[in-house]
Write a structure and sequence with these properties.
single chain, about 150 residues, alpha+beta, 4-stranded mixed beta sheet, 5 helices, 4 strands, about 10% strand
Length: about 150
């Protein structure tokens, strides 16, 4: 099974199944990429490469617990119709090698580089997302810094 999934690499570090929930993958397989925004996937690859540590989005295909941290459809429990997740334009992730506080601080300390080199424009406030990093690529014309989303 893993061998088959490896053939579906989207980027150097991410597989397609890491961005979609099981019901989408099971129906569309490699065509699941139709529902993802390429600039956002590329931004997450840039972030992963720049950090030099693994980032876990969805890990359901390997028996893990996360299945709705990328694309969310009406079948997903966390679905909200106007969320960037609904548009394939947001991901939640964590790193097993970097604490959440360190990851969040790195994002704030490197805003200029993130804004200039990726489509990421917003992250969720650490108080609202205490164990995961929410990154989204909403369109914010002329953004000078990351938008910190608060519930």
């Amino acid at each position: 099974f893993r061998e088959y999934l490896c053939a579906m690499n989207l980027t150097t570090h991410f597989l397609a199944v890491e961005f979609v929930p099981p019901h989408v993958w099971n129906q569309f397989k490699s065509a699941s990429t139709w529902f993802l925004q390429r600039p956002h996937v590329e931004a997450m690859e840039w972030l992963r490469a720049r950090l030099g540590v693994p980032l876990v989005i969805n890990n359901w295909a390997n028996g893990g617990q996360f299945k709705n941290r990328g694309l969310r459809t009406p079948e997903s429990q966390q679905y909200k119709p106007y969320s960037q997740h609904s548009f394939g334009n947001a991901t939640d992730c964590h790193s097993p090698e970097m604490s959440h506080a360190e990851l969040y601080k790195w994002m704030l300390d490197n805003q200029d580089e993130i804004i200039s080199k990726t489509s990421i424009r917003a992250i969720e406030d650490i108080a609202a997302a205490p164990t995961w990093l929410h990154c989204d690529s909403r369109w914010i014309p002329n953004a000078k810094e990351l938008l910190i989303v608060k519930p």
